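User: New here, any thoughts?
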Amino acid sequence: MPSTDGWSSARTASGMRSRISSTRIGISRWPSPTVESSESQRPASSGPRWVWASRSAVSSASFVRPPPRTPMTPAIPHIDRSGESSKDPQLRGIWEGLPLCPLLLCSGLSAVGDASRTGVVAAPYWRVPKEPRSCGRSRWQRERGPSALLVSRLWHTVRWLRAGQLAAQVRHRVGARLERLETRAQRPVPSFPGLRWTTQGAWLAPGAQRNTGVALAAGDFVFLNRKEALGMPPRTWEPHELPRLWVYNLHYFEWLWALPFDTGAGAVRDWIERHGLARGATGWEPYPISLRLENWCAYFFGRHREETLADAGLRDVLWGSIHRQAERLVARPEHHLLGNHLLENAGALAFAGACFEGESAERWRLGGLALLERELPEQVLPDGGHFERSPLYQARVAWVLRALRWTGDAAVGEAVEAPLERMLAALAHLTHPDGEIALLNDAAFGVVTLPGALGAPEPPPGPFALHDTGYFGARGVAGHYVVCDAAPIGPDYVPGHAHGDLLSFELSFAGQRVFVDAGVHDYEVGEARRTCRSTAAHNTVELEGKDQCEFWGAFRVARRGRPRDVHFAQEGEGFRLEAWHDGYERLAGAPRHRRRFRWHPHGVLMIRDWVTADRSVTARTRLHLHPDCTIEDLNGSTARVGYPGGSCVVCFAGDGRLSLEPSRYFPEFGVARDSEALCFTARGARLETGFCIANGARVVRYDLETGADVDGSRCAF
């Protein structure tokens, strides 16, 4: 974008991005908003932040001053200020707020401890009073109030969306209103063409099966750890009183695999008869269609192939519904969302196309294959990680690729083979010794198939580095495991599953999770969702009570932090990792956080943190314990943590105060477990703190410069 727009910001070769990249959204011909950036208030002579990564001065002349104060735009009553509509949390929020920001429209962006402890017990981090409202806001935002904040938040969210994504949003919304569903539902379906596929090996049922045949026969469904008595078949396929994700799971039909053939066929017949194509029908949205196509095709024309083909009436009814669903998916793939949603669409089309003979099925197969060949090189990174940086969605995508290979289609199998092998190898590194995934970003247990069942190889002991994904760590023969997060929050145009976990980590000792990330409770707008995404819920440094990224709604991210200068080095069976991030540069004083990890293979993790700013800031370093762990002793800056089968010592260093906070752990959707967190609080403009975690130790002395003495053994930094 031309510098005359007032948004260009000179950066040095240290890798700092320009204030806006016009090539990302293709709107350089439009004027930009003249919002004053918090970075513009920074002294031009700020110079190097620290000796190893200097930053050039930012010219205040490169920012346009805000216009004279005008009356605030009146509030529009129907807009949900939380940023999301309760009816469609994944798609709404940005677009409903657009009446407040015509400038964006013109820019083409339609877019707790017992009494014996000596430490201080603090209030829960999710109940701590917010910082003063002026913190981290520009003068223009403070003066204009909520309207200015909404415009700023919208702008910093939609500016990263792709031009094609924006166009698809318009098509998706306008098309949904103009579409003649009655005509589409009455289109003739060709006669059953016969089966095409030659399946390979045993079918692997999707997900973690929580529903049993006995319970389902009694009409009890369990999704997201919530049990509902709907009957069998369900008395309604649209239980509006339940969370949207719960209803989605009902329409996925993954529970079909727990039923005998006759009961399953009856439930599917009922869905076909009573849940036809209609405006607002949950089951006819692209994502539920995608998962349902895979389950119906594999269940009826895979596992129960003979029974299905023997019943011509059932066969024809199934084929008619599958044809309509696939045609609907061809017409409405989720180009407006992209990411794992579009990959699911592609996989479902290729899967259904590989199942059947005929012209329609061949069109689905070729269309799905073309999408796969376009999306897989971008979504599956060279090191095998998924580009949304969630082990949960990585495992789900790996299952889809495995299912496509199972079809026996040569072209489809060739397209998915190499990405699948890379994904399984990376997924093995992101698995704790207990066999479950690391809870990085939006990740939870009890949703996807375990990595071992997917075919992930046994990970070797020693350090590992997923440089493209941004995850680093090590695995020991004694059941020790650490994974460190120096990853971007995800693709800029689809960051919905990101958490404020830059430079965080998870740690297991002797096969037991000890220090954990928050996990995820739900996808609904509310306190639980905000807590799970917050920086305070992760094992990293929180500054000024703010998050590293501006999270809003259920899936939105406005200004976001990025890891910088990531350096990893293997040292014997241990490793050293160092990085910093710019997530807090939007705050007054433009603070930065830099962290160095040092892992010793016998179970010693040392961390050193630097916080530098142009003014004093409050820094809180938190370590969240697994609920099965307890604080056995808290004395000064040292704590002893007990876990099933052992204990470890945590020793903090630096000028600050150690306290104990209540914490919460969300290992599964709908599950919240009470726990505790160690919190080390410091304040200043130049802070240097850190801590050492030593497994099985009795005495630990930790020095930020030289390292730790653990029971007389020296662990150098």
